[in-house]
Amino acid sequence: MALLLVLVRALIVVVAAAVVSSSGLPVPGYDGLAIGFYHETCPQAEELVLAEMREIVREDKTLAPALLRFMLHDCFVRGCDASIMLKSRKMMAERDALLSCSLRGYEQIERIKAKLEEACPMTVSCADIIVMAARDAVFLSNGPRYQVETGRRDGKVSCDIDAYNDLPPPGSNIVDLKIYFSVKNLGWKDLVVLSGSHTIGRAQCASFAGDRLYNYSGEGKQDPSLNTTYAPELRKACVPGDPFDETYVEMDPGSPYTFDLSYYRDVYSKRGLFLSDQALLDDRWTREYVERMASADSTEEYFRDYSKAMTNMGRIEVLTGDNGEIRKVCGAYVD
Ligand code: HEM
Ligand SMILES: *[C@@H]1O[C@H](CO)[C@@H](O)[C@H](O)[C@H]1NC(C)=O
Ligand SMILES: *[C@@H]1O[C@H](CO)[C@@H](O)[C@H](O)[C@H]1NC(C)=O
């Protein structure tokens, strides 16, 4: 009897999901989130975000990768709750952490929020805007366009210490990377799939020159695993002995603004930029995935995996229902 009930219930959920998605009504998702959460309260929300993102990326293409990275920095630190946007006069907030010093996108999230406030006041959370902007950044870089769950609410706390604890540094090895991800409920597959985000964008020499070029393992030498035809190019770009070198280097030099599989070909041929990229070859499962994607002739499987992994990242420690708040301004002061 109980089994029958479970089966019937499962059937209802499946049927309901099918009916609802084709009619555009919200599809219930994880822990109070739903695909199309704003269907009734702000039906044009997703369209408005995409329109604004198109404009933002047209004005400055480097903002597409920046806004993709923005979601990582929000979600990994205190969950996807827009706490990265908060400011403090008395303490160091997340955005003041050294690890986030090159993070860009604050004004753009605020700009999108202003559009949404015009259309539907006090309705769409900043946390959802960050997730939608990242989705559109991928799409506008020729990546997949996947459906996002929405319904997150905004947190009220932001502390730099959380950023230091929860964001994986670029010098991380595979063991540490798996731990950073697993405490956020993400597995090895999310790790290897989401690392592929480094197929777009750039990094400052400060983020890798010590680890890879000049002081590998604190031994004052070059990382012996770094591709020897690639290394001289990087050494030309980054001056030795400057731990704060802000010079930018493209992470996937062949196609830095196209979301494709070349990240995996880079890593496979030892041209990954960070130790954390190269570390994906040090675990059997992540290595097999890198190898498969490096030789894949279609992006189909990767795009499917990416959509799933981004959905997983968007579920980290979310505030839903009556938790958190909806703010008028994302970058509000907490004190
Ligand atoms: C696996 C652990 C990861 C590490 C250690 C890492 C580290 C970094 C670092 C150090 C930078 C360059 C910052 C700079 O020098 O300006 C960067 C850039 C970037 N990261 Fe990651 N990241 C990781 C995972 C991810 C994930 C999961 C995403 C997905 C959202 C992501 C998306 C990006 C993007 C798009 C950029 C380029 C930003 C730009 O061009 O402005 N990263 N990452
Ligand atoms: C290299 O790293 C070691 C250990 O972290 C440090 O003591 C040393 O000062 C570094 N050398 C340079 C040139 O940065
Ligand atoms: C280094 O990169 C080149 C492409 O620039 C590639 O042909 C070569 O196989 C790579 N070396 C290694 C060890 O993967």
From TrEMBL:
The active site is at H73. Keywords: Calcium, Disulfide bond, Glycoprotein, Heme, Hydrogen peroxide, Iron, Metal-binding, Oxidoreductase, Peroxidase, Pyrrolidone carboxylic acid, Secreted, Signal. Pfam families: peroxidase (PF00141). Disulfide bonds join C42-C120, C75-C80, C126-C330, C205-C238. Its cofactor is Ca(2+); heme b. Residues 32-334 form the Plant heme peroxidase family profile domain. Residues 1-17 form the signal peptide. Substrate binds at P168. GO terms for molecular function: heme binding; lactoperoxidase activity; metal ion binding. PROSITE patterns: PEROXIDASE_1, PEROXIDASE_4. It catalyses: 2 a phenolic donor + H2O2 = 2 a phenolic radical donor + 2 H2O. Ca(2+) 2 binds at T199, D252, D260. It is an enzyme of class 1 (oxidoreductase). GO terms for cellular component: extracellular region. The record marks R69 as: Transition state stabilizer. Its main location: secreted. Heme b binds at H198. Ca(2+) 1 binds at D74, V77, G79, D81, S83, E94. Binds 2 calcium ions per subunit. Removal of H(2)O(2), oxidation of toxic reductants, biosynthesis and degradation of lignin, suberization, auxin catabolism, response to environmental stresses such as wounding, pathogen attack and oxidative stress. These functions might be dependent on each isozyme/isoform in each plant tissue. Belongs to the peroxidase family. Classical plant (class III) peroxidase subfamily. This is Peroxidase. It comes from Oryza meyeriana var. granulata.
